[in-house]
Structure formats: structure tokens, C-alpha cells
Amino acid sequence: DAGITQSPRHKVTETGTPVTLRCHQTENHRYMYWYRQDPGHGLRLIHYSYGVKDTDKGEVSDGYSVSRSKTEDFLLTLESATSSQTSVYFCAISESGLAAPFADTQYFGPGTRLTVL
Amino acid sequence: RKEVEQDPGPFNVPEGATVAFNCTYSNSASQSFFWYRQDCRKEPKLLMSVYSSGNEDGRFTAQLNRASQYISLLIRDSKLSDSATYLCVVTLSSGDKLTFGTGTRLAVRP
Fold it and tell me: 3-class SS at A85?
């Protein structure tokens, strides 16, 4: 299994509080991603990073920010959590990018279950 | 219309059965195709890539039909351990983004 950890694995918080989720990898992969997974939706990309300090928005980036100061760590921050951000959050990594036709394999972390009350 | 559509199932089959899932995609510019497997409350894991010529990995066969814009996954001789959700995933020719279907749930019974 790829060396990806996420912390915390479970979190319950209240509306309006800031929350930071951490993704840590030991594979030295260049690309890192944050997704959320909700019933009735496929995994949806929040933000991704293609190198240290290089990040870009995904399709559901509103209300989220990210930072990557080291190759191995990718942080996802909810500045002011809302109930609509209750979800399962997955981090993923890939050695190279996903642009076809040579889209690389993504490896996913174990996920963080976030509940916003 | 969703970019990637899958029948959510569940498909409930006995051990040893053959089962097939289809997935349709809306963007004709889609270039790369994958099947991922996700066990309950676990992370998705790559099952197999889907190539234009079709490909096989043991009991699993994936096919791509570009004209009709669908991919399929065939599982032969189903095992209890095949019970999971199967995610169809596509990517475009540009941009670092995978598009995931909502998944098809398979339950294999003894």
C-alpha cells in the first residue's frame, strides 16, 4: 500500500469553527489531491497540488483552502465549517499528473470523516 | 446530465456468477478510463485501467466503446470478496482531473 496517512480520521465540530485536515505521504510523489465523497455524488475534487507551494482549485473549492509547504504534507482548511461540509474527505497522490493519455494512477489515503453540527 | 453515469445497483449475485457493469460518459473528449474498487468505509483502489482494445486481468475484463461512450466491467466466477462498490473513472485529454461515477454496488452471496 502507498504510504499515505490522514489525520484526524474522525472529527466532529461545530458550525463556524475552523478545521484543518492533514495528508502526509512518504512516497515523494509530486501530485496531491483533496476530494470529498457524499452519497449520490462521485468523488469530487476540492483542490490539488502539483508541487510545493503550487496549488489549484477543483470543482468544489468554495469554502476550502489548501497549503503545501513540503512535498510530503498537504493541508486542507475549512475556514468556517458549515453543515454542508459534513463529508468523507480523501487525500490522494500520484507520481505524475492525470492528463491523458498517460494519466497516472492515484493512490488514496484512508479518509477523514468530518461531521459539522 | 452527469459526466459519468453508473447504475447504482445493488447487484446481488450468487458466488460463481458472472456479472457486468456499464458506465456511460458524456464528454467525447475523454481519453483515459479506469475502474476503481471501494470497500465499505474504505478508500478507493485502482482495479484496472481500460484500454481501447479491451483488457483482461484474471476474472476481470474491461471494455471500452468510444462510439457509444461507455465502458464495461465483467466479473466472472464471482467471489464473496468481490463484494464492493465499483467506481467508473474518466479523464480528459487536458487538465489534471479525474471524474468519478457514483459507483455500482455489488453484493455476492454464498
Answer: helix
Q: How many residues in total does chain A contain?
A: 117
Q: How far, CA to CA in Å, does A14 sit from each of A21, A60, A62, A80? A: 15, 21, 19, 9
Contact A45 B87 (CB under 8 A): no
* pLDDT tens track for B61-88: 999 999 999 999 999 999 999 999 999 9
Beta strands, E only, chain A = 4-7, 10-13, 19-25, 31-37, 44-51, 54-57, 64-70, 73-78, 87-94, 107-108, 112-116
SS3 B3: coil
- Which set of grid coordinates corresponds to residue A20? 484543518
Q: Which residues of B touch A90 (CB under 8 A)?
A: 43-44
B46 touches chain A (CB under 8 A): yes
d(CA B56, CA B23): 17
Give the SS3 label for residue A83.
Answer: helix
Rg (CA), chain A: 13
> Do A33 and A57 form a contact (C-beta atoms < 8 A)?
no
Cβ separation A31–B96 shorter than 8 A: yes
> What pLDDT is recorded for position A102?
57
Instruction: Report how far residue A57's alpha carbon sits from residue A53's, in angstroms, rounded to the nearest whole number.
Output: 13
* pLDDT (tens digit per residue) in A27-64: 999 999 999 999 888 899 999 998 999 999 998 999 99
| pLDDT tens, residue by residue, B17-44 | 999 999 999 988 888 899 999 999 999 9
